[in-house]
Design goal:
Length: 529
């Protein structure tokens, strides 16, 4: 009897192992399963925890005996599933058969950095994955707001095109003119903060100041309601939570299924609580904006997203609410931090290379720094911005794409179907094959030294094609206004005791960039300077 019982256990375990192998090869190997990861996790928990507990509770019953059989089956299922996954990835995966290796730089321009992921260090990658002829789609990471949606997370190309047209209404020439009037208001406040520190000979925490500036503008831009951080000289509580929440996106971006499990099943404490509190706050602000309108006479982004479309018709709240809530979070994050981080990078580089700050001062000292048409035509100002964005793109790595069933060729290299492609802008922008003295800050490469640009395709700080940043013009205009005003009125240097200017050496990649502290000492220029 014992032999029979043991033999039955072995058979059930073997059947479980076979079931795991079949589940992998017939089900999980096909399509995407990251969105279902929470449900699968619950099922496995029920199988490996619930069944033993229930069997123990109902012992000596028919149900308990059945559950005991399920338990023995489970002893083989998960090991069989995992073994099948590992064997497939190591020996039979299309990336293995195609010869991709990783994860080290020594493997060249195409490095395997995940089971179905290739990191590409090639200047043609941006146009290949986002150009007009590209068939690539956004990767699984973009389901981060599921079941919510936002323009940047829309993976369906037709849906993305519709939403992008709706966003375009907020970036017309007329709309930008209204936005730029708001920008100048906050440039005035930024100038006042720096002037106050300069008068008192205080060190200015430029990192905080520029992030406050960026978020204040975007609060006004999206909701016609500033966060008031420049005015109050302190962080708004929701922005503190947002910054903590974004720290999740760095370590977990490469495992989107784990993000889904965490968001759906993990206790909402610590940074997870920060994330959901931020989402809830954005939703409440959007709801308030829709119900009570704007206190401002100008039209904010919410107006364009919710109250009119390209035909001039109103949107129904039921149809557009979940999109607007997601888009408001997108706009706050994608509009505030990248511009602020880009400005931090410029000030950091100018602190290391003060001769370029003086050249810009010479360009702006006798011009109206509120006249955008003038600023657009200042060669060294624009070259410094462009060079800083090359070395320090605000999105260091973000923007993963996925090949379709046809695969993709980049350069001379074919990449198999259903492969995630990572194109790190930070690294590609520093390729010596694309830029002479690629790791050095040389703004002249964009003006008087064009031979130093060997392949301009490697420069894509705002993305490429139909997925390029809608707010590019607004961001560049904001940078011009800030740099022209500050460099006209002040000279600056690294704060005493902080000569390293290491804000960008300690930057964290968490979809957007999170730079370290940048402390500067400002001095007001005299009229004769």
């Amino acid at each position: 009897m014992d032999f029979y019982y043991a033999n039955q256990q072995a058979i059930l375990t073997a059947v479980g192992a076979l079931s795991g192998i079949i589940a992998h090869n017939a089900v999980y190997i096909r399509g995407e399963w990251h969105v279902q990861a929470p449900q699968i996790t619950i099922q496995l928990f029920a199988l490996y925890v619930g069944c033993p507990v229930l069997a123990q509770t109902l012992k000596d019953t028919a149900i308990a005996r059945f559950l005991q059989g399920v338990i023995f089956w489970s002893y083989g299922y998960l090991p069989g599933l995992i073994a099948s996954i590992l064997l497939y990835r190591v020996f039979f995966h299309p990336l293995t058969r195609t010869g991709f290796r990783g994860p080290w730089y020594k493997y060249g321009s195409f490095v395997r950095t995940g089971p179905a992921e290739i990191t590409v260090f090639h200047p043609d990658v941006f146009m290949a994955v986002d150009g007009p002829r590209s068939e690539c789609v956004k990767s699984e990471w973009y389901d981060i707001l599921h079941p919510g949606q936002a323009l940047v997370t829309a993976r369906n190309k037709s849906v993305h095109a519709i939403r992008r047209r709706e966003w375009n209404a907020g970036f017309t020439t007329k709309a930008l003119a209204e936005h730029e009037a708001k920008i100048l208001k906050y440039v005035d406040k930024l100038d006042q903060c720096i002037e106050q520190d300069a008068k008192l000979q205080k060190v200015t925490n430029m990192r905080d100041l520029l992030l406050w500036f960026g978020f204040d503008i975007m609060g006004d831009f999206v909701f016609s309601k500033s966060f008031g951080m420049l005015e109050n000289q302190q962080w708004h509580h929701i922005i503190v939570r947002l910054q903590r929440a974004l720290s999740l996106l760095g370590p977990f971006s490469s495992v989107p299924w784990l993000i889904q499990v965490g968001f759906n099943l993990a206790p909402r404490v610590s940074v997870l609580k920060d994330w959901f509190d931020t989402v809830a706050w954005c939703q409440s602000q959007m709801r308030d904006r829709l119900e009570n309108g704007s206190s401002s006479q100008s039209q904010d982004l919410s107006y364009y997203l919710m109250e009119k479309d390209s035909e001039g018709h109103g949107f129904s709240e039921n149809e557009k609410w979940h999109w607007a809530a997601g888009d408001s979070l997108l706009a706050i994050v994608a509009g505030s931090e990248p511009t602020a981080v880009a400005l931090i990078a410029v000030f950091c580089e100018l602190g290391k290379h003060p001769e370029h700050a003086e050249k810009i001062h010479e360009e702006v000292k006798n011009v109206d720094v509120t006249d955008l048409k003038t600023l657009v035509n200042l060669p060294h100002l624009n070259a410094v911005m462009k060079e800083s964005l090359r070395l320090h793109p605000a999105l260091l790595t973000g923007g993963n794409r996925k090949t379709t069933e046809f695969g993709l060729t980049i350069g001379d290299q074919f990449i198999p179907p259903n492969t995630t492609i990572v194109a790190p802008r930070y690294t590609i922008g520093r390729l010596e094959s694309c830029f002479e003295k690629a790791s050095e800050f040389v703004p002249e490469r964009w003006t008087t030294r064009p031979e130093m640009v060997r392949n301009a395709a490697a420069y894509a700080p705002f993305g490429t094609g139909h997925h390029s940043c809608l707010g590019k013009t607004l961001a560049l205009d904001t940078m011009k206004y800030v740099l022209a005003r500050i460099l006209k009125n002040y000279r600056f240097r690294a704060a005493p005791g902080d000569d390293s200017l290491s804000a960008l050496e300690t930057v964290k990649d968490q979809f957007t960039s999170n730079p370290g502290t940048l402390k500067l000492q400002f001095e007001r220029r005299h009229a004769t300077d």
